[in-house]
Structure to design on (352 residues):
């Protein structure tokens, strides 16, 4: 703004438009009498801030600008030439160079690690690799492929085994009928039966039912020569009920027909009732007369013997040393009697 006196203030120089060439202060700094590559004492006691603006307005400036008007023009003026100005300009150039180098370094880091997440990315990568390695190790220790599944036990294999059951067991006295039917295979007199198993025995009721059907309809059994044909039913009224029960329950039902099974823990045909009682302890554990090796045959003898009573047959013994014991001999209790040795036999007609 113009003053009111006769002497006007100097007309401000017009600022040159920014062009492609270097700034004037950069050119002035490189005159012949000043070696910019020689060691130089800083123009000011204040250390230059490498992160400050490229133009250092405060470097070398006295505390009060009124005492340095000859060194500085106003903000719109051109800096006066001189060593002080060149020194300040060099300081600005150095700061610019440092800033440029830092910018290049940072730019390189940013280019190498976009988003500035190098450490986090590396940490995430390490974690992913650890998880992958852990999974790989787990895969390496995976359970080997199972071999062929074991074949289910056959009927004969099941019948050849003993099963745990206490000799003193007394069950609940409640029975479950084994579901299903098994048609009579022959043309003889048909007798129907149901199979009941006392609850809580822990024995295979279906195996027991299968054994009854196979045994009774064997040609060595009571179905011999077409005399009978036995059929298992599930509903309706049967001719008799073959019952697998605990020793205590067996004794209760046998007592209904005046029989005592507690002395030798045996089975019975409770003729006054519909039940043919098979002692579950004997079914599961067998007897000393047959031993574990022949328990399959012993179970066949139990069925044939007690059903034989239901068909009207009484007790008999062998009469000749070394002969097969008749199926109606009390083979659970003994094989030998009166000096005669009898051989175990589960069938009414063993030679068939």
């Amino acid at each position: 703004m113009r003053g009111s006196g006769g002497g006007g203030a100097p007309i401000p120089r017009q600022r040159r438009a920014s062009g492609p060439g270097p700034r004037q202060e950069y050119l002035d700094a490189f005159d012949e009498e000043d070696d910019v590559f020689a060691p130089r004492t800083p123009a000011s006691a204040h250390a230059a801030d490498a992160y400050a603006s490229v133009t250092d307005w405060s470097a070398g400036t006295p505390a009060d600008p009124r005492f340095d008007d000859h060194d500085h023009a106003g903000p719109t003026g051109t800096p006066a030439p001189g060593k002080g100005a060149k020194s300040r300009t060099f300081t600005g150039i150095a700061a610019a160079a440092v800033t440029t180098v830092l910018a290049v370094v940072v730019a390189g880091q940013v280019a190498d690690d976009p988003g500035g997440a190098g450490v986090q990315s590396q940490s995430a990568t390490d974690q992913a690799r650890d998880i992958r390695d852990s999974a790989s190790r787990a895969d390496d220790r995976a359970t080997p492929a199972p071999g062929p599944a074991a074949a289910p036990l056959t009927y004969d294999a099941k019948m050849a085994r003993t099963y745990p059951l206490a000799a003193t067991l007394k069950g609940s006295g409640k029975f479950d009928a084994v579901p299903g039917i098994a048609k009579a295979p022959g043309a003889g007199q048909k007798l129907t039966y149901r199979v009941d198993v006392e609850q809580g025995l822990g024995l295979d009721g279906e195996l027991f039912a299968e054994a009854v059907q196979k045994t009774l309809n064997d040609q060595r059994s009571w179905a011999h020569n077409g005399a009978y044909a036995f059929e298992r039913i599930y509903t309706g009224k049967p001719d008799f009920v073959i019952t697998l029960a605990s020793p205590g329950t067996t004794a209760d039902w046998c007592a209904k027909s005046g029989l005592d099974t507690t002395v030798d823990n045996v089975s019975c045909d409770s003729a006054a009732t519909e039940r043919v009682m098979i002692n579950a302890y004997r079914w599961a554990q067998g007897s000393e007369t047959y031993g574990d090796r022949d328990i399959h045959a012993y179970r066949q003898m139990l069925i044939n013997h007690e059903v034989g009573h239901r068909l009207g047959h009484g007790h008999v013994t062998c009469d000749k040393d070394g002969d097969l014991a008749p199926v109606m001999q009390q083979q659970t209790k003994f094989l030998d009697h009166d000096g005669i040795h009898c051989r175990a036999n589960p069938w009414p007609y063993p030679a068939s």
